[in-house]
């Protein structure tokens, strides 16, 4: 049997197959039916705007020959989109199979609903003769750019951003919990000045928080200005109407977007490049976190909680593999690849219009899907690890040479005060500690061999690799 013959159809991508449960929330906003539903919202709201005007024109019809729609008629139009169900999707598909044009199919779908208005409302209504008002003075991109912007805005705000916030909040809580837990730092993979686990987690919280603030503040631009952005058809239909102001009000007040006053046939998509660049940046920060935690696990700093019944290795029963972090890494990379491509491609268009952006934007859901999947796995991974204090303390105890830094710095300060015997402090400490195994006794003896004042000597001898962490714990409070 061919897999293509199986019903329901087998998903081509892992996002709609293996990982469907994790990525399904995005279907509500960035799937093809979601886009068509949003197109219906734009088309019907435009009809209401044309018929009922706006505050600036005294709520008068923008075109002669139509009466303002009453509340019931407006409610009827606004109910078309929410009722876009499985049967509706099939009806739209039938229209598109004939028109070969998705927006035109939406127009015909709305025409059908207008034809049914009297039957549904149970009374005469002008809606039955307003089919000509559907898509009035619009090019497809007038509808598409607004629909796409609203779809992406809702997907980011309702699905992606809360998932990213969950990771941020979990990290922040862990950073505060482990603010004072000492950790041997490694720079270039070598033992370095100790820090705390909480402070290192807080670094990621701070980085993520800055980028998520950019996402929250992101503008989503829109336009509704005709075939080449000139309001040409609008001004022919109603020369005395301030169509520029109508467009601004519609985009900002009805669509909830930022008005773009200057476009070709398409909205220029610069806001999308900005948004995808920021989300890609978040992905890369969290990819960095995945790699760090993976290496902490390998080093024994983090211990994993085994999942009952789960298999770590098909041949080595003892293993608990950090697969959630590896899965997150891979999916962040996939998301970045798509987002980077989207950001680079969408900002270009041949003269006043070409169709490359139309098919390209159909991959936005996939790009967000990979990131959402990665966030899901990263959070699950973080929730399944905990610090191994025994390993962490032993690492610190095995590396007394990290106290070379405070000793040579104290020597520098003494040399500046004119204390003899403190010359070339860096070199003196380097001869003692570099490449050698150093114990507490070695450190104490070296401090005693130098002419420190009693207070400085006492302070230096009180330091241990576990206590030489500066103000690391205090820094955690600055994460966000």
UniProtKB/TrEMBL annotation:
Coiled coil: none annotated. Gene3D superfamilies: Fumarase/aspartase (C-terminal domain), Fumarase/aspartase (Central domain), Fumarase/aspartase (N-terminal domain). GO terms for biological process: IMP biosynthetic process. Keywords: Lyase, Purine biosynthesis. Pfam families: ASL_C, Lyase_1. GO terms for molecular function: N6-(1,2-dicarboxyethyl)AMP AMP-lyase (fumarate-forming) activity. Residues 17-328 form the Fumarate lyase N-terminal domain. Pathway: Purine metabolism; IMP biosynthesis via de novo pathway; 5-amino-1-(5-phospho-D-ribosyl)imidazole-4-carboxamide from 5-amino-1-(5-phospho-D-ribosyl)imidazole-4-carboxylate: step 2/2; Purine metabolism; AMP biosynthesis via de novo pathway; AMP from IMP: step 2/2. Residues 349-469 form the Adenylosuccinate lyase PurB C-terminal domain. It is an enzyme of class 4 (lyase). Its EC number is 4.3.2.2. Catalyzes two reactions in de novo purine nucleotide biosynthesis. Catalyzes the breakdown of 5-aminoimidazole- (N-succinylocarboxamide) ribotide (SAICAR or 2-[5-amino-1-(5-phospho-beta-D-ribosyl)imidazole-4-carboxamido]succinate) to 5-aminoimidazole-4-carboxamide ribotide (AICAR or 5-amino-1-(5-phospho-beta-D-ribosyl)imidazole-4-carboxamide) and fumarate, and of adenylosuccinate (ADS or N(6)-(1,2-dicarboxyethyl)-AMP) to adenosine monophosphate (AMP) and fumarate. This is Adenylosuccinate lyase. It comes from Bifidobacterium magnum.
